[in-house]
Amino acid sequence: MQTVVSIFLLVSALGVIISVLLQEGEEGGLGAIAGGGADSLWGKNRSSSLEAILQRTTIISAAVFILSTLVLAAR
What we know:
Blueprint: H1 2-22, H2 31-34, H3 37-41, H4 50-74
Helix pairs in contact: 1-4
C-alpha cells in the first residue's frame, strides 16, 4: 500500500512541476486590466484553451500530491 501511495506522490509531483512550468506568466500586472487582457480573460474559448487545461491539471495534481503526502505521513 505504501508503494502505491509513493508512486501517486511521485507522479503527482512531476505533474505539478510540468504543468506549472508550461503555464504562461502574467507579465502585464495591473496594467493588463485596462489593456486588451479582458478579451482573453473572459473570452468564449476560456474553458477549452490550453491555459485552462493546464490550470485544471495543476489543481488536480496538487490535490493528489497533498492527499498522498497526508496518507504517507499518517502511516
